[in-house]
Amino acid sequence: MKLLRQLCGTVLVMEAVVIGLAIPPAIVLEHLSRGVAGGVGGGLAVCALVLSGMVGRPGMGWALWAGSALQVLVIAAGVVVPAMYILGVIFAALWVTGIWLARRLQAPPAPRAPSSPNA
Known about the structure:
The protein has helices at residues 2-21, 23-28, 34-54, 62-76, 83-106. By secondary structure, it is mostly helical. It starts with a helix and ends in a 13-residue tail after the last helix.
């Protein structure tokens, strides 16, 4: 679980930074009110940071599902800031890759086939 915590936690922390940096363009370019942009963007960023501390910990299996739901919400933020479509897909790919890689590296090695005596 340590690898899962490191990989997915890092993805979520970096994603929180990107979400936070998307708030000013939502206000200036998309003319979203400051309260809505800060509330929604800040809420998503805080969720990402909280989940980064929970993912991979014992008894916190739900955090993987919550992190996956967060990926969907970040992609959906592309409705307001179109660049979030691309950034959301990139982070979703990193999220899936982090889960896959951590599980692959933590799996016990496959048993080796016995070698034949004639070989």
